[in-house]
Amino acid sequence: MRIAISADTAHGLDANVSPHFGRCPFYTLVDIEDGQIGSVETVANPHFLDHVPGVVPQFIHGQGAHVMLSGGMGHRALAFFADLGVLPVTGASGTVRDALTAYLEGALSGAAP
C-alpha cells in the first residue's frame, strides 16, 4: 500500500504535515509492507503555484497512492479522490511520521471538509 502525505518540506518522515493537501509544496510517499514503513520518497507538488481543482488528486493517483493523508481538503477534492479510488483522510497533524503512525494504528481515519 502506498500512502501520500501532504508536507511543508522535503524532509521525508520528519517534515511537518501541511494543513491543505492541494496547496502544499511537497508530498511524502510511503510504501507500507506487512504493516511496516518501507520506502519513503518526497516529490514536489507540480501544481503548488497553479492549483486547479482536480489536478492534484489526479497527480496523487498517478503516483500510485491508495491513501491521501492531509490536514484538510474541500468537498470537491473528497469527491475527486473517491472517483479515483484513493482514500482521503483529513485531520493529520504533527510530522509526517506522527500522522503515518496515527493512521497505521487506527487513531486517524475518515475525512471531513
Summarize the structure.
With about 110 residues, this protein is α/β, with parallel strands linked by helices. It has three helices and five strands, in the order βββαβαβα.
Keywords:
5 strands, globular
Topology:
Layout: E1 2-7, E2 26-33, E3 36-44, H1 55-62, E4 67-69, H2 75-84, E5 87-89, H3 96-104
Parallel strand pairs: 1-4, 4-5
Antiparallel strand pairs: 1-2, 2-3
Describe this protein's structure.
The chain is 24% helix and 26% strand. The mean pLDDT is 95. The chain has a five-stranded mixed sheet with strand order 3-2-1-4-5. It has 113 residues and is α/β, with parallel strands linked by helices. It has helices spanning 55-62, 75-84, 96-104, and strands at 2-7, 26-33, 36-44, 67-69, 87-89. The longest helix is centred in the last third of the chain and has 10 residues, at 75-84.
Strand order of the largest sheet: 3-2-1-4-5
**Cα-based radius of gyration, to the nearest Å:** 12 Å
Structure class:
alpha/beta
Provide the β-strand percentage band: 25-35%
String of helices and strands = EEEHEHEH
- Percent helix, as a range, is 10-25%
| Beta strand count | 5
Number of helices: 3
Broad shape: globular
**Sheet with most strands:** 5 strands, mixed
* Low-pLDDT stretches: none
Distance between the termini: 24 Å
Mean of all residue-level pLDDT scores: 95
